[in-house]
Design brief:
The complex is a heterotrimer of chains A (327), B (342) and C (146). With 327 residues, chain A is an alpha/beta fold. Chain A has two domains: 124 residues, no CATH class; 136 residues, no CATH class. Chain A is globular, with a radius of gyration of 21 Å. With 342 residues, chain B is of the alpha+beta class. Chain B has eleven helices and twelve strands. Chain B has an eight-stranded mixed β-sheet with strand order 3-2-6-7-8-9-1-10. The longest helix of chain B has 19 residues. Chain C is α/β, with parallel strands linked by helices and 146 residues long. Helix content of chain C is 40%, strand content 16%. In chain C, strand 3, helix 3 and strand 4 form a beta-alpha-beta unit. In chain C, helix 1 crosses helix 4. Classes of the chains: A alpha/beta (327), B alpha+beta (342), C alpha/beta (146). Chains in contact: A-B, A-C, B-C. At the A-B interface, strand 2 and helix 9 of A face helix 8, strand 11, strand 12, helix 10 and helix 11 of B.
């Protein structure tokens, strides 16, 4: 158990014991070292199963929509990217901020078990991180890996290590900002021809099984009833009977969260077919930054979003393709 | 038994696909799924688990059942199914192979689902023995021997060779094509591999899961268990587990209006979805807890009580690997089992 | 030999009730012609157009979609078209990012007095789409099957 994990559990314990919080939302130990699930803890006994390790990639902020309606205060542990999501939800009046004790915690990137497995290491029993290296122990021995090679995609291009809008923080070491440019891949696609881009997205989206994991995990997708679940909408579909439906779902979803997507990267993390869904949302973020000025959703819990705002001299839609955005 | 050098495998696939369509695990856009073999395909036989299971061949995610065409006051119903020509599914693991039995019980009982049956009858199945099962595998719990699956032809693989053994008449026919690419032999290697695989299976963490509480007489007790609330609390209500599951068999039938008629198609449904079994008056399960419970009760209690004790899970471990929040059937089995045995 | 059918595109034009729809009227009464394959859908304001409308038009066989509203600053509801401008700038560039030809989508500001401009805009757009050919990239092929 790391010092950080100890500190977190300690804090959770005294929040529950003092009655300051009626419950704590965190991560619960699974069957293995690498499969913790989000969970609610109501008592000190339950906290025995609390974990915070390299595989706690799940963003807990969306659970607060439901949990914050329960009586009493809820304490929640949020990694830097998760704090942006909570702020955005508060801004959209989805979460009652008064009922939340938000505790920002240290995160230096979370690990992807699939990537570790691809390196031929299975049955992982522990992964201890020291700087840029991770020592992965498994039933078959230990191996040292380069952390960058086994990070979740979302963590490779982390937007910020800032903890925004939290009530308190538990940070022991320095959190290093990720060095890479998160729009690099979007630019790569933009430089392709239309036909190449079409082929790229066709091969990626044809993997889509319409499991809706990307939508259900997304903190920005907080509609009570989604248009794609409403049989009366004419677009509800449980399967892609035609390729168009893959496009329709992903285009509408990306547009609907544009200006509100904090780029937490959960969509790509949860996709069972590993479709790079973050590249859809990032295109909107990039376009908004270029056309309407730098904007980071979730940075503030008030104010307008770019698509609910305007200026008289905004760029003309027909010019966006070659002015402003695509050079 | 026929032994084929792996370097000749592409030639063999080509020869088979000349005779009939050949479906095989292919890596495309980064993920391995079944796809028709074509020249240059990135075949990945050693991938333990394709993302989607092999049930797609018999029970596809979406299929057209019929069309309606309206002209004036006349409605024409068009069944435009074509005869299903024989095809080969190559590389079905023991767990997926067992899932066909589970689907058969549902789709082939009276009234027979002819859409399913046509494809089932046309398929030649080449199973693939596992050499390196991983920690999420627990097929042995359901009495599956992944080291020696059946099917029309069984394929065993090591680093250099593929070994083939035919089990049925259909398989013998396929062996005529395969035979041209290899030589007799390999029994000793295969026996050694089987022994080795079984030893690994024995050591895997889920091998000794205890299913004893999951029996029809415990239905009410299990249904009423308080554990469901905490088991399901993190569930997102997405359909990942159901769509990657080889035994999930629920479907929905929907209409799509074209410009001059209607296409009636059926598609997979998921008990995790809020409109699952939605009726005009109401929805029978309104909370995620109920939906979550439905999925596992169906697999572990309802199905066995209807079909002679067979569980509707094959232990492939796809849900263990793919659930976004890491919930899965193993956690359910352990938690409910522990509770009842206390 | 098979007869090669001339490609006649399907165009959907969303027109604001207060400007371009009246502009179309004016074009008509001024006997200015625009192609008959432009299907006009009247909307109370250009900002009524949900991205779903546009995608549905493509699904149902549109080869091009054009959105016409009041000139920025002239919106009947004061600011509606400013929002349209942002939304459509984002959406249409995004569609292009997905590989949809950028010529298939267009936004034009046409006032009620600009009958001549309306007919010219439509003629231009139809000409462009005719050159571009049939939409195969973002359409539901089930609709096209006979």
């Amino acid at each position: 158990m790391t010092d950080l994990e100890n500190k977190i559990i300690e804090r959770a314990e005294n929040l529950l014991e003092s009655g300051e919080a009626a419950r704590v939302v965190g991560w619960k130990k699974g069957e293995f070292y690498f499969d913790p699930s989000p969970a609610e803890f109501d008592s000190k006994e339950q906290l025995r199963d609390f974990v915070y390790n390299g595989f706690c990639g799940a963003n807990l902020s969306k659970y607060l929509i439901q949990v914050s309606k329960k009586p009493g205060k809820t304490a929640v542990f949020l990694k830097p990217c998760d704090t942006f999501s909570l702020n955005q939800l508060v801004k959209e009046h989805r979460v009652n901020r008064d009922n939340i004790i938000a505790i920002g915690i240290e995160c230096n990137g979370k690990l992807d078990i699939e990537k570790i497995k691809e390196k031929g290491v299975s049955a992982v029993t522990e992964a201890s991180e020291t700087g840029k290296e991770v020592t992965v122990s498994s039933l078959y021995g230990k191996s040292v890996m380069n952390k960058e090679d086994i990070l979740l995609i979302k963590c490779l291009t982390c937007k910020s290590k800032k903890l925004v809008g939290v009530d308190e923080t538990i940070v022991l070491g320095e959190m290093e900002e990720a060095p890479s440019d998160r729009f690099e891949e979007v630019e790569k696609l933009e430089k392709m021809t239309e036909a190449e881009r079409f082929a790229f997205w066709k091969s990626q989206l044809s993997k889509c099984i319409r499991c809706n994991a990307c939508r259900n995990v997304c903190p920005a997708c907080s509609c009570v009833k989604c248009v794609f679940d409403n049989p009366q909408s004419g677009v509800a579909a449980k399967a892609n009977d035609d390729e168009f439906e893959e496009q329709l779902f992903h285009i509408i979803r990306a547009f609907h969260v544009s200006g509100r997507c904090t780029d937490c990267g959960e969509c790509s993390r949860v996709c069972p077919q590993r479709i790079p869904l973050h590249l859809l949302n990032r295109k909107f973020i990039k376009d908004i930054n270029t056309c309407y000025g730098e904007y980071q959703a979730g940075e503030a819990a008030d104010g307008k979003t770019p698509l609910t705002d305007y200026t008289v001299g905004d760029v003309e839609p027909n010019d966006v393709f070659n002015a402003g955005v695509r050079k | 038994m026929i032994k084929v050098d792996r370097t000749k495998a592409d030639g063999m696939y080509a020869a088979i696909s000349e005779k009939m369509p050949l479906f095989i695990p292919v890596k495309s856009a980064g993920e391995v799924n079944y796809a028709p073999w074509e020249k240059g395909a990135d075949v990945s036989l050693d991938t333990l688990k394709t993302v989607k299971s092999a049930k797609d061949f018999f029970f596809p995610q979406s299929e057209t059942m019929m069309r309606f065409k309206a002209e004036g006051k006349k409605i024409e119903i068009i069944d435009d199914r074509k005869e299903v020509a024989p095809f080969v599914i190559f590389g079905v693991r023991g767990c997926d192979y067992r899932s066909f039995d589970i689907l058969d019980k549902v789709f082939l009982q009276e009234p027979v689902d002819t859409y399913y049956k046509e494809r089932r009858d046309a398929a030649v199945i080449v199973t693939m023995a596992c050499a390196k099962p991983e920690e999420s595998c627990f097929c042995s719990v359901f009495g599956i021997d992944s080291a020696d699956p059946k099917g029309d032809v069984t394929c065993y693989a090591d680093d250099k060779y593929l070994y083939f053994k035919s089990n049925t008449d259909k398989g013998a026919k396929l062996m005529e094509i395969i035979g041209a690419f290899g030589t007799e032999g390999g029994e000793k290697e295969v026996e050694a591999q089987k022994k080795n695989t079984r030893e690994i299976m024995e050591k895997l963490p889920f091998t000794h899961l205890d299913l004893s509480v999951f029996k029809p007489e415990n239905l009410n007790k299990l249904f009423a268990s308080e554990e469901w609330a905490s088991l399901s609390e993190a569930c997102l209500g997405c359909g990942t587990c159901t769509f990657v599951c080889p035994t999930c068999q629920c479907f929905d039938i929907r209409d799509f209006k074209t410009n001059d008629g209607v296409i009636r198609f059926r598609c997979w449904d998921s008990c995790m979805y809020s409109d699952f079994t939605q009726m005009a008056a109401a929805n029978s399960r309104t909370t995620q807890l109920q939906r979550y419970r439905q999925r596992f009760m169906h697999k572990l209690v309802y199905y066995p009580s209807q079909y002679g004790g067979t569980y509707s899970c094959v232990g492939c471990g796809r849900c263990v690997n793919k659930c976004p929040q890491r919930l899965n059937i193993v956690k359910v089995i352990k938690r409910l089992g522990d509770k009842e045995n206390d | 030999m098979q007869e090669i059918k001339e490609f006649v595109p399907n165009i959907v034009a969303f027109c604001c009730n207060w400007c371009s729809y009246a502009g179309a009227d004016l074009a008509g009464s001024g006997r200015l012609s625009y192609p008959a394959n432009v299907k006009i859908i009247r909307v109370p304001c250009s900002c009524r157009v949900n991205p779903m409308f546009i995608l549905k038009a493509f699904q149902r066989g549109a080869d091009g979609v054009i959105l016409c509203g009041c000139h920025p600053g002239d919106c009947h509801y004061v600011t509606g078209n400013y929002y349209t401008r942002r939304r459509m700038a984002m959406l249409f560039d995004f569609l292009n990012y997905m590989g949809i030809e950028k010529e298939r989508t267009r936004v034009e500001w046409v006032s009620a007095a600009e009958g001549a401009r309306f007919s010219q805009v439509m003629n231009d757009f139809v000409k462009k789409i005719t050159e571009l050919g049939e939409n195969r990239r973002i359409t539901d092929l089930r609709v096209k099957e006979k």
